[in-house]
Amino acid sequence: MNRIKEHPILDFEERADIPFTFNGVEYIGKEGDTIAGALIANGIKYFRITRKLKEKRGLFCGIGQCSDCSVILNGIPNIKSCITKLEANQKIETQGEGE
Ligand code: FES
């Protein structure tokens, strides 16, 4: 897991594990994560494939303005993962892969 655990001036409280799946694979996020944060912490950088050029996209603006981080969440497309909180047992999928 790619998560900062020690820092010279910041403290990190232990948070509860939250299970979820991404493209059918089970992962663990932490309570309070956004979906994008949980994906990146698990080493996943690309969440979407562009429709026309089939290019990979992931976290870009991180504030809900660009839609590069869009995923399919529980069957609903166009969910901005950078501003959507992770919840237990969410089924998250790459957007644009089958188009
Ligand atoms: S990274 Fe830009 S909307 Fe999420």
Characterization of this structure:
This protein has one domain: 2Fe-2S iron-sulphur cluster binding domain, sarcosine oxidase, alpha subunit, N-terminal domain (Ubiquitin-like (UB roll), Roll). The protein is mainly beta. The chain contains 1 helix and 7 strands; from the N terminus they run ββαβββββ. The mean pLDDT is 94. It is globular, with a radius of gyration of 14 Å. It binds FE2/S2 (inorganic) cluster.
Topology:
Blueprint: E1 17-22, E2 25-30, H1 35-41, E3 48-49, E4 56-57, E5 70-73, E6 76-80, E7 90-94
Parallel strand pairs: 1-7
Antiparallel strand pairs: 1-2, 3-4, 5-6, 5-7
The structure holds FE2/S2 (inorganic) cluster.
Concise overview:
The protein is mainly beta. Helix content is 7%, strand content 30%.
The rounded distance between the terminal residues' Cα atoms is: 30 Å
Ligand list? FE2/S2 (inorganic) cluster
| Percentage of residues in strands | 25-35%
- Report the CATH topology name: Ubiquitin-like (UB roll)
Average pLDDT taken over every residue: 94
Could you list the spans in which at least 5 consecutive residues all have pLDDT below 50?
A: none
What is the CATH H-level superfamily? 2Fe-2S iron-sulphur cluster binding domain, sarcosine oxidase, alpha subunit, N-terminal domain
For the largest sheet, list the strands in their spatial order: 2-1-7-5-6
Count up the domains. 1
CATH class: Alpha Beta
Number of H/I helices: 1
What is the molecular shape? Answer: globular
Q: SSE string, helix = H, strand = E?
A: EEHEEEEE
Query: What is the annotated CATH architecture?
Result: Roll
Number of beta strands: 7
Please state the CA-atom Rg, rounded to the nearest Å. Answer: 14 Å
- Given helix and strand content, the structural type is mainly beta
